[in-house]
Amino acid sequence: MNQRLQRLADQIQRELAVLIRDEINDPRLTGLVTISNVKISPDLGYADIYVTVMERDMSDAMAKDFHQESLAVLNNAAGFLRTELSHILKTRTTPRLRFHYDEITANTNHMLNLISQAVQSSEQNQTSDES
């Protein structure tokens, strides 16, 4: 990606984060939406937005349905978000927004949680063995 597209992607990422937080009031979107990456096509036709939605205390089965519903809300709001972006960006055209669930970031967070739990368990076992 050239430098111009990267700057635009970074600006879209910053502006969308604010717009989603402040303007999307859909009750189905209850978690914390994090935009992890934005990729823009060279012709500025599309912007693929990779998001994760953090929701606490959910089983894996519930989380999958929750993420699908959150993506549906974001994709339904894509036209509104694009219009709002067009007022902010200083470009001739504003790319169409397509939201995707970022599996890599979600899996990384899951692995970090498992490692943290294993370390805590190991520390607790060492403490109980010393007693």
TrEMBL record:
GO cellular component, one term: cytosol
Keywords linked to the UniProt accession: Cytoplasm, Ribosome biogenesis
Subcellular localization(s) per the UniProt record: Cytoplasm
GO process terms (BP): maturation of SSU-rRNA
Gene3D superfamilies with a match to the protein in the record: 3.30.300.20
Entry-linked Pfam families: RBFA (PF02033)
SUPFAM superfamilies hit by this protein: Ribosome-binding factor A, RbfA (SSF89919)
Any one GO molecular-function label of the UniProt entry: ribosomal small subunit binding
InterPro entries per the UniProt record, alphabetical: KH_dom-like_a/b (IPR015946), RbfA (IPR000238), RbfA_dom_sf (IPR023799)
Main location: cytoplasm
Subunit organization: Monomer. Binds 30S ribosomal subunits, but not 50S ribosomal subunits or 70S ribosomes.
NCBIfam families registered for this protein in UniProt: PRK13816.1 (NF010389), rbfA (TIGR00082)
Entry's family note: Belongs to the RbfA family.
Function: One of several proteins that assist in the late maturation steps of the functional core of the 30S ribosomal subunit. Associates with free 30S ribosomal subunits (but not with 30S subunits that are part of 70S ribosomes or polysomes). Required for efficient processing of 16S rRNA. May interact with the 5'-terminal helix region of 16S rRNA.
Protein name: Ribosome-binding factor A
Organism of provenance: Faucicola atlantae
Gene it is expressed from: rbfA
